[in-house]
Structure formats: C-alpha cells, structure tokens
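Please go through the protein record below and see whether the fold suits the sequence. Record follows.
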Amino acid sequence: MNSKCPLVLSSIAIVLLTVVLYWDRATGRLDIRAPTSISHPKHRTYTTTFSLAEDPISEGDNWIGGRTVGLDWSNIQTTPAHAYGAVLTPGNYNDPTALLTGSWGANQTAEATVYSTIQSDTDYDEVELRLRSALSAHVCTGYEIDFRVSSSPKAYLAIVRWNGALGNFTYLVTYRGSRYGVSNGDVIKASMVGTTITVYKNGIQIGGATDHTYATGAPGIGMDGPIGTNRNWGFSSFTASD
C-alpha cells in the first residue's frame, strides 16, 4: 500500500522559507511541494471630518456630486468640520448628494456624526447615508437611509431605493416616532451585507430592510430640506468601509 507522510521544515535564516516534503515509501523519494497560498480580498476605508471649505465637496477628487455629475440633483458643500446640503429646487426630490469615487466592495458600511444647531418640524430636514449608489447624467441609483433631524414624535427613519430618474424611488420601509429622529452629536450607521440593510443609531440597531436590486455601487451622503443652503444641520464626520 502506498502512503505519504507530510513533514514541514522551516529555515531559521533571515528570510523564512517553508516547504512541504512528502516521503513516498513506495519510491523512496522526497516530493517537494510549495504550500497552498490563500488570497485575502483588500478592504477600503475612507474617513473625513470635512476639514476644507468646498462647493461642491471634493476632498481631492474623492467625491462626485448630485449636481455636477447627476445634473438633476443638488450638491453637498462643506465648511471646516461641517458638511451640509444646498437644495436647488423645492419639492422635487433633488436631494443634495455626494458619493465616494473608486471601486467599493458589495458589503459596505457608512457611518456619520450628525450636527444640528436648529430643529424644526416645519420643514422636513433630513440627513442621509448612501449605500451601493451610483450617479451619472440624469440617473441616480442605490440605497438611501434617511433620518429626520427631529426629536419629536414626527421624526422618522426611511430606507429608500433610488431607481434612476429624478423622483423615481421606492420606499422599502419607514419607521416613525421620536426614537428614529436625530439630533446634534448622534452617530448613525448603515450597513449592507448581501441583500440585507441594517441601520443603527448610537450603536443600537433600530431598523432594516432587504432588497436584491443593486449588487454594486459606492457609499456616500445626502441631505434634504427647504430650498437654499441649509447650514443648520448636516454631518461633522463620516466613515465608509467595505
């Protein structure tokens, strides 16, 4: 009967080299084989505290904008330590949007710290996280996680799928109540693994949805509110990873 016994030898020189020696009892020979290599996918992380004053946000071409690329949406602007939206036209869902550039893995997480100096239920002020999103001329796709900037019972969290054209979107789920609103200093996070979106506020899971429409795209941010430059709410930091 032929049998092979593995024996692993390692050198103790400056460069360590490992080989696998198999002793074949039938032939009386050593068979030298390289160990099996395992490749690990590279992961990407982007973190910012919005240190620049930019209109629209770029941070060295790391962002694209809803107006500059998508044409029909609005852009995100920054002053040091703040990112906020500048709505072009009221009431037509042209949310200020910015997406990170480059290639991103399908499993993504976006996290941001909210800042808010004034809260009012008169307007529908929102901060938004984006996952698996893309922008091109007159097209915006991907997933948007909306938090109303409010601590009242009128607050909400909505998970939305953008389908392409301006105003063409689908609500996947909406949660209502004060626990779903955000205020200054709150940390919001959304992740998508496979077809599952999970949403957190201050480290506590508060919602989720499933959808299989988009398998690729980039993370990003968004805002919404009345027409004009809305400096009273937005984000003071943001991190995306895959």
Summary: The longest strand covers residues 228-241. Residues 64 and 99 are 5 Å apart (CA to CA). Residues 1-25, 30-40 have pLDDT under 50 and may be disordered.
